[in-house]
Amino acid sequence: MIAWFGDPSHWQGSAGIPARLLEHGVICLWSMALAITIALPLGVWLGHVRRLGMTVTSVGNLGRAIPTFALLILLASWEPIGVSDLAAIIALAVFAIPPILTNSYVGIREVDARATDAARGMGMTGRQVLQQVELPLSVPVIAAGVRTATVQVVATATLAALVGGGGLGRFVVDGFGRQDPTLMFAGVLLIAITCIAVEGAAAALQRVITPRALRPPTPSLLPRHRPAPSVLWKTTAALDTPPPR
Question: Taking the CB of residue 188, how many other CB atoms lie within 10 A of it?
Answer without folding.
Answer: 16
